[in-house]
Amino acid sequence: MSAKFLPAGFLLSFLSLAAVAQQSPTVVVGPDSSQEVVSTSQTPVYRVQVVGRTTKAVNYRHHSITEIKFQGTKLDPNGQGKAKVESRTGRIHIEAEFENLPKPSIYGPEYLTYVLWAITPEGRPSNLGEILPKKDGKSELSVTTDLQAFGLILTAEPYFAVTIPSDQLILENVVKPHTKGWEEPIDAKFDALQRGEYTVEVSPSQLASQTADEKMPTDLKEAINAVAIAKAAGAQQYASSSLSKAEDFLARAQDYYQRKQGDKAIGTVARGAV
């Protein structure tokens, strides 16, 4: 387990720290998850607890079609899946299928969805897309990437647009004996955001899992989470224009929901908020 210094805005991709030195509190999260607010005359820097993880990376053979499997971790031992990986000129196409995925909220009130990640041998994560399981726990995703060598993992997340995986690792790829490619000789090491970091300054009562009714579309729930987390990360101070737009999108999505405008209309503006 390691601690790294990251800018407060890492929680949302649209947050940028246009640093202006001023008196602001800093929240320090210790190794034991304790919190301390420190007054400083400098731009706030947040100590964020991350967890070192590893997964197997595969360098996929050029112009080939192969298959890998996913196995569940201790968080979801019954989870499983498979993916067809096709290497094409300039890109790799992935068709993934998953089974026995529980509701993400069982891992914490902030988790609403799953994200499939490609992890390079150097440890760089790439968000490949959102996975929303059906009632039977099944889901699928078809996506392309320009990466050639990577490992695949599935994590629980508070919304689809995250840029750093959480440590709620649900599934990871397993290299089959006939996989066309070769396993990288080293493990792909990457950092994962420790459980609870999204709610260091966000009360569970502000999250969609606590305030929304069961019929509310997941897209709208994710927008509620994203805006709440953005505010807690200092968006009003550092990205007020972006936050204002996000709040406007969220208000429109909530209005559409109240007027029963349909999931497609609600999802469009809700995802804009995220």
Helix segment tally: 5
Shape: globular
Q: Cα distance, first to last residue?
A: 29 Å
User: What is the mean pLDDT?
Assistant: 80
Summarize the structure.
With 274 residues, the chain is of the alpha+beta class. Helices cover 19% and strands 37% of the residues.
Give an account of the 3D structure.
The protein has 274 residues and is α+β, with helices and mostly antiparallel strands. It has a domain of 135 residues: Immunoglobulin-like (Sandwich). It has 5 helices and 15 strands. Strands 5, 6, 7, 8, 9, 10, 11, 12, 13 and 14 form a 10-stranded antiparallel beta sheet that branches. Strand 9 and strand 10 form a beta hairpin. Helix 2 runs antiparallel to helix 4, helix 2 runs parallel beside helix 5 and helix 4 packs antiparallel against helix 5. The radius of gyration is 19 Å and the shape is globular. The N terminus is likely disordered.
Show the helix and strand layout.
Elements: E1 2-6, E2 24-29, E3 35-40, E4 46-55, E5 58-60, E6 65-72, E7 80-88, E8 91-99, E9 113-119, E10 125-131, E11 139-145, E12 149-157, E13 169-174, E14 181-183, E15 188-193, H1 208-211, H2 218-232, H3 235-238, H4 240-258, H5 263-273
Antiparallel strand pairs: 1-4, 2-3, 4-15, 5-12, 5-14, 6-7, 6-13, 7-8, 8-11, 9-10, 9-12, 12-13
Helix pairs in contact: 2-4, 2-5, 4-5
Looking at this protein, list some descriptive labels.
single chain, alpha+beta, Immunoglobulin-like, ten-stranded antiparallel beta sheet, three-stranded antiparallel beta sheet, 37% strand
